[in-house]
C-alpha cells in the first residue's frame, strides 16, 4: 500500500507526471496553511512569526504564508524581491545574513525595509552608511552567538566558533553594537541557535538558553529592547515519510522564561518574533521522479533516476541540510511485496550523485514513477541546479485536486557592464 497520506493523491501525482513530466516538485498549499496554523498554535499567542524564504521562495508558497499577517525573513535581494512580489509589506521584512553588501542594504532601504539583523560592527557600519546614502532611518537587531543550549539539532548555528553573530562573551563589541550609529539604531537582539531540533525538551532548552543570554546582554548594556527575534529550530521530516511534530508544551515554557526575563512582553515591550522555513513548507512538497535504469554492480542494485543532487539535496556534499537518505514510494503500485535494497542515484556524471544508499523498493524497473515525500523545504533552490546543465525541475502548485500553476526553474546568464 502507499505511504500514509499519499494513497488518495495517486491519481493527481500520476496526472502531473504525465502532463508536465519529471522531475517535478508538487507543492500543496493546503498543507502549507496547515503547517502554519499548527506552528502558530504551538507558539506564544503574543509573538509574531516570520517566514524564512531560504526554505522555499516559490511565490505561491510565500504568498500563502503571508496570510494572517506573518512577516518575512530574507537574506538576499532575490529573496527580498520574492517577498515584496508576494505582497509582504516592507515593514514586516527583516533582512539578515553575515555578509551584506552596501548595495544590497541600499536596495533594501530604498524598497522600504527598515529592520535588519547585524552580525558585527562592520555590518552595522555598512547599514549606517546605507542609511546615510538613502537619507532614511533604520532599526537593527544585534545577532548574538549564544552559548550552546543542547547537543541536538541537525545544524548548529551558535554555541561554537562561527561566522554568525557576535560572541556574548565579547561584551566590548556588543556594547558598541548596542549604541546607535548615524541613522541606524539598535532595538534589540536576534538569536538562532540550531535547526531541526527534534527533541521537544531540547528545543525548549535552546530558547531558554538564548533568552538567558539576551537578558544578560541587555542588562549589562542597560538596553530596554523593543524587539527580540528568537529564531526557530522547529523540526520537520525531509525526503522520508513522516508528519509534523507538535509542541504542546513549548508556548508555556517560552512564556514562563519571558515572564521572568522581560515581563512587559505580553504588552509588546518587547515584541517577540519567531522565524521558520523548514517546518512551514517541508511536508507540503512531493518530488516526482522516474526510474531510468536498474543495474547491479559488486552485489549492489543501483536505481538511476532522472532526479539527482541537481534537483534534491545538492548541498549534501557540503555537509549541509540533508544526508543522502531519501525514501521514496512507488506511485500507483503496492509496496507490500518483497523489497529490494537499492542505492538511489541521479543522472549526473559523478559518483557523488547519490540520493540514498539504503532505500528499499518493490520490483524496481525503468519507467516507474517514484514520489519522495516531505520535500517542500530546501529542494530545488538548495540543489546544484547549474551542474551539468540539466533542465531544472518543474514546480507544480496544487490545492486539493486542482493544479494552480506550473513553472520550471531556469539557470541563465546575462552580460554585466563594469560598475562606475
List the helices and strands and how they pair.
Layout: H1 10-20, E1 24-28, H2 29-42, E2 48-52, H3 59-65, E3 71-74, H4 77-85, E4 93-95, H5 102-110, E5 115-118, H6 121-134, E6 138-145, E7 155-156, E8 166-167, H7 171-177, E9 184-190, E10 194-195, H8 200-221, E11 227-229, H9 250-261, E12 271-276, H10 278-281, E13 285-297, E14 300-305, E15 329-330, E16 339-345, E17 354-362, E18 369-373, E19 394-399, E20 402-408
Parallel strand pairs: 1-19, 2-3, 2-12, 3-4, 4-5, 5-6, 6-8, 6-9, 9-11, 11-12, 14-16
Antiparallel strand pairs: 1-13, 7-10, 13-14, 13-18, 15-18, 16-17, 19-20
Notable characteristics:
TIM Barrel, diaminopimelate decarboxylase activity, 10 helices, 420 residues, alpha/beta, Lyase, Ornithine Decarboxylase, Chain A, domain 1, nine-stranded mixed sheet, disordered N terminus, Orn/DAP/Arg_de-COase, De-COase2_N
Amino acid at each position: 500500500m502507499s505511504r500514509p497520506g499519499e494513497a488518495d493523491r495517486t491519481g493527481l501525482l500520476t496526472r502531473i507526471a504525465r502532463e508536465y513530466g519529471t522531475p517535478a516538485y508538487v507543492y500543496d498549499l493546503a498543507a502549507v496553511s496547515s503547517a502554519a496554523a499548527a506552528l502558530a498554535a504551538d507558539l506564544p499567542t503574543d509573538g509574531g512569526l516570520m517566514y524564512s524564504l531560504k526554505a522555499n521562495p516559490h511565490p505561491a508558497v510565500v504568498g500563502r504564508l503571508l496570510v494572517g499577517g506573518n512577516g518575512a525573513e530574507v537574506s538576499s535581494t532575490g529573496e527580498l524581491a520574492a517577498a515584496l512580489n508576494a505582497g509582504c509589506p516592507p515593514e514586516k521584512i527583516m533582512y539578515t545574513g553575515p555578509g551584506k553588501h552596501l548595495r544590497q542594504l541600499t536596495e533594501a532601504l530604498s524598497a522600504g525595509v527598515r529592520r535588519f539583523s547585524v552580525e558585527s560592527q562592520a555590518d552595522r557600519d555598512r547599514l549606517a552608511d546605507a542609511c546615510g546614502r538613502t537619507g532614511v532611518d533604520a532599526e537593527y537587531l544585534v545577532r548574538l552567538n549564544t552559548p550552546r543550549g543542547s547537543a541536538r539539532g541537525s545544524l548548529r548555528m551558535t554555541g561554537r566558533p562561527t561566522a554568525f553573530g557576535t560572541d556574548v562573551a565579547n561584551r566590548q563589541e556588543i556594547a558598541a553594537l548596542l549604541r546607535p550609529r548615524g541613522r541606524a539604531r539598535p532595538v534589540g537582539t536576534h538569536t538562532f541557535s540550531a535547526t531541526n531540533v527534534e527533541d521537544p525538551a531540547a528545543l525548549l532548552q535552546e530558547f531558554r538558553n538564548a533568552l538567558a543570554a539576551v537578558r544578560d546582554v541587555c542588562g549589562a548594556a542597560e538596553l530596554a529592547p523593543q524587539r527580540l527575534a528568537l529564531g526557530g529550530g522547529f523540526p520537520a521530516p525531509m525526503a522520508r515519510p513522516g508528519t509534523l511534530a507538535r509542541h504542546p508544551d513549548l508556548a508555556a515554557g517560552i512564556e514562563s522564561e519571558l515572564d521572568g526575563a522581560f515581563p512587559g512582553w505580553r504588552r509588546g515591550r518587547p515584541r517577540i518574533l519567531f522565524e521558520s522555513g523548514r517546518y512551514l513548507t517541508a511536508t507540503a512538497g512531493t518530488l516526482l521522479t522516474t526510474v531510468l535504469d536498474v543495474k547491479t554492480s559488486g552485489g549492489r542494485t543501483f536505481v538511476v533516476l532522472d532526479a539527482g543532487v541537481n534537483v534534491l539535496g545538492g548541498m549534501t556534499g557540503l555537509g549541509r541540510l540533508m544526508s543522502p537518505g531519501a525514501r521514496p514510494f512507488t506511485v500507483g503500485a503496492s509496496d507490500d511485496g518483497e523489497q529490494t535494497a537499492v542505492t538511489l542515484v541521479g543522472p549526473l556524471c559523478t559518483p557523488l550523485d547519490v540520493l540514498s544508499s539504503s532505500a528499499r523498493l518493490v520490483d524496481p524497473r525503468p519507467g516507474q514513477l517514484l514520489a519522495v515525500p516531505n520535500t517542500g523545504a530546501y529542494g530545488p533552490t538548495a540543489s546544484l541546479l547549474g551542474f551539468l546543465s540539466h533542465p531544472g525541475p518543474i514546480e507544480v502548485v496544487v490545492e486539493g485536486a486542482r493544479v494552480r500553476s506550473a513553472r520550471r526553474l531556469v539557470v541563465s546568464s546575462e552580460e554585466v557592464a563594469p560598475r562606475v
